[in-house]
Amino acid sequence: MTIVSPTNALRLEIAGTEASSVRAELEEAITLAESVAREQGCCGVLVTRHDYGRFSVTISPEVPYGTTQESQDWAQEPTKILV
Questions:
Q1: Nearest-CA neighbor of 60 among 46, 41, 40?
Q2: What backbone torsions phi and psi does residue 69 show, to the nearest 5 degrees?
């Protein structure tokens, strides 16, 4: 997990190839972000999937306080169905 904090805003980046380790780091990042959001008392947590094994967790004023939302910021190629 990488912590990026350019303007005192919390941004945690998670990347990996093993699902179990990515899941564990993601859960840890969400727990940390929720704790910081509670301390600030004004934002919620946004979890964004950028790729198969790459996520970011941020505190966002666009997310209601006390909630965690998920979004996807990647274009998955459509599945080709062979008939």
A1: 46
A2: -120, 155
State which amino acid sits at residue 15. A
Kindly state the helix (H) or strand (E) to which residue 2 belongs, with its residue range: strand 2-4
Predicted confidence at residue 65, as pLDDT, reads: 92
Beta carbons within 8 Å of 74's beta carbon, 6+ residues apart: 49, 50, 51
Q: Is 53 exposed, middle or buried (0-12, 13-18, 19+ CB in 10 A)?
A: middle
Give residue-wise pLDDT tens across range 57-79: 999 999 999 999 999 987 655 44
13 closest CA partner among 52, 47, 64: 47
Residue ranges of domains in the chain: 2-72
